[in-house]
Design goal:
Layout lengths: L3 E11 L6 E12 L5 E6 L14 E3 L9 H7 L7 H7 L5 E4 L4 H14 L4 E5 L4 H14 L2 E5 L15 H14 L4 E6 L3 E2 L5 E2 L4 H12 L2 E5 L23 E4 L12 E5 H5 L21 H16 L2 H15 L1 H4 L4 E7 L2 E6 L15 H11 L5 E3 L2 E4 L7 H19 L2
Helix pairs in contact: 1-8, 3-4, 5-6, 9-12, 11-12
């Protein structure tokens, strides 16, 4: 079967920052396969150029394709878009590429297949990583016939039910794992700096940088899950920035829209992206579905949210609030039923114990964290129980007065449930 190229009149989605609009524009070039299906559409003016006021215009063949639309192209593709240029400056030194988070499973499958082709048979995961993320990777490994290598919790943590390791010991453990499986480990998946669902466990300084260096030495990908830590939560736009680390793959979500609508993205370096480039007949490129791709409304909300980071100087104004939060947490450290207080930026875990000296844990059936959060709700504050820790993740726009109220209510709720 052969395909043909035909010129048609199309419509241009003009990415004007103030009034995005559809306008008629002649000479779109479409590719039609032997079955009459449109497989490609591109701009191809015959006698004139697209006006300079419409950079990155997208040609649509007489209809609006909701999988390629103005908010999407602005957020990820235009030279003046709010996110992509920033990522290239601050996180990815090379060009970054986007896909939606629904692609994560498929990316894992494709990646595992590529690893098999070059002889790689293992992937490294952290045993305390987010369960759903770990499950996606392990299922992909299983489908590909690969085996997974799991390790201990490679983080500092003062708690009664976890291994306590410093940065040097943790990195030595990872180095040993990579050495034992030299040439077999495809990648290391990690939540940078803070393991959220594991109890707000903060990694020691230098750990993430050390992981990056070990991955480089082992020719393994560093895959960072910034779903929880991204977009200002740790005090920088992305947690990786704190240690000058550039991951090979990065997952983002949640904060990209300020939490108002669900939206996620998977970012990759140019080198990794190019690994999927080939002729169609090679069947190497990424066969992705469109069902969950780039919802126009969510993408528009993300644009508005990212614009606020610039216009409101969100990250700059966040630093005094982080210091205020740290000062307000000091009273928790002295409480007899608080075993540990962990903070990185606006991510806080307050671990509740029976005895601060021994770190004896409360039995699960006592539901201490749930009781404390229920008490806080009655007092006007919603916080999350993540036993054995209470989680505080205030909005970046919180005022000083609201931050003080949050801390006062949380402390009073701990007192009400556990006493002094």
């Amino acid at each position: 079967m052969t395909s043909s190229l035909e010129r048609i009149r199309g419509r241009v989605l003009a990415p004007d920052p103030h009034t995005p609009r559809l306008v008629d524009w002649p000479d779109a070039l479409i590719e039609i396969d032997a079955r009459g299906r449109i497989t490609d559409v591109r701009a191809a003016p015959a006698d004139c150029e697209v006006p300079e006021t419409w950079p990155g215009a997208v040609v649509l063949p007489g209809f609006v394709d909701c999988h390629l639309h103005y908010p999407q192209t602005r957020i990820i593709g235009s030279a003046s878009g709010p996110l992509l240029p920033w990522l290239e400056r601050s996180v990815f030194p090379e060009e970054a590429r986007f896909a939606d988070d629904a692609h994560a499973v498929a990316v894992a499958d494709e990646f595992c297949a590529a690893m098999i082709a070059q002889g790689t048979t293992s992937a490294g995961v952290f045993s305390s990583s987010h369960p759903s993320a770990t499950q996606i990777l392990l299922e992909a490994l299983d489908r590909a016939g690969l085996r997974a290598v799991t390790g201990v919790t490679l983080m500092d943590r003062e708690a009664p039910d976890a291994v306590t390791l410093g940065a040097d010991a943790a990195l030595a453990a990872l180095e040993g794992l990579l050495d034992r499986h030299h040439g077999e480990v495809a990648g290391v998946v990690i939540e940078p700096l803070v393991q959220g669902a594991a109890g707000m466990i903060v990694s020691p300084p230098g750990f993430l940088r050390g992981v990056r260096e070990l991955c480089d030495g082992a020719n393994a990908l560093l895959i960072c899950d910034e779903v929880a830590t991204g977009f200002g939560r740790t005090g920088r736009m992305f947690a990786c920035e704190h240690e000058g680390v550039s991951p090979d793959l990065m997952a983002v979500a949640k904060g990209i829209t300020g939490g108002y609508l669900p939206l996620a993205a998977t970012l990759a370096t140019e080198d990794l992206y190019e690994g999927f480039l080939a002729n169609y007949q090679d069947m190497k490129h990424f066969f992705h579905g469109h069902t969950y791709t780039a919802n126009p409304v969510a993408a528009a909300v993300a644009i508005a949210n990212l614009d606020l980071f610039e216009t409101d100087r969100t990250l700059e104004r966040l630093q005094p609030k982080i210091e205020r939060l740290a000062k307000g947490l000091e009273r928790f450290r002295a409480h007899p039923n608080v075993g540990d207080v962990r903070q990185k930026g606006f991510m806080v875990g307050i671990e509740l114990v029976r005895d601060r000296a021994t770190k004896e844990a409360h039995p699960p059936e006592e539901k201490i964290c749930i009781r404390v959060t229920d008490e806080a709700r009655r007092r006007g504050v919603i916080i999350r129980p993540l036993a054995p820790a209470l989680v505080l993740m205030p909005p970046l726009a919180i005022t000083d007065e609201e931050l003080d109220f949050l801390l006062d209510v949380t402390y009073a709720s701990v007192e009400a449930v556990l006493g002094t």
